[in-house]
Design a protein that fits this description.
The structure is a single chain. Helix content is about 55%, strand content about 10%. The chain is α+β, with helices and mostly antiparallel strands. The chain folds into two domains: about 1-70, no CATH class; about 70-135, no CATH class. The longest helix is centred in the last third of the chain and has 33 residues, at about 85-120. The N and C termini lie far apart (about 80 Å).
Length: about 150
Amino acid sequence: MSSPRVIKKYPNRRLYDTAQGTYITLEDIKKLVFDHAEFQVIDANTKKDITQNTLLQIIIEQEATNAPLFTTAVLQDFIRFYHEKSQTIFSQYLEQSMRFFIQQKEFFKNQWQSYQTLFSDPALMQAFKMQKIWPAAPRAEPDKKLRKNTVK
């Protein structure tokens, strides 16, 4: 496994990608996240890992848009958890819940793509429509319940 890409953050708040040898923006870091690239943001002076702070900056920018992910109540609850003994448990729960949600999202995405592929075939679509109109072959013997309710 290769070591993560190193991004250095300088006192002037500029981010330097050591792999590319160029300055980058938070938007570029966001693209790295979407690409599932492993990276680490290091403070150039203190050598401290500030990846989490940088990711939080991106979240703050995202939350400032017209479609925030977190409600005020959720953010207030997050702040309260920092002073709880169950902070570690909550952090683990949140991480596992996110993993589960991502797995479920992928599952349903794949299911939807399968259905789209299936119904893009006109012959299969026609067979499906016919199944809806005539879901089963007619029965030779009517149900006893139906016979009781018929008028003589």
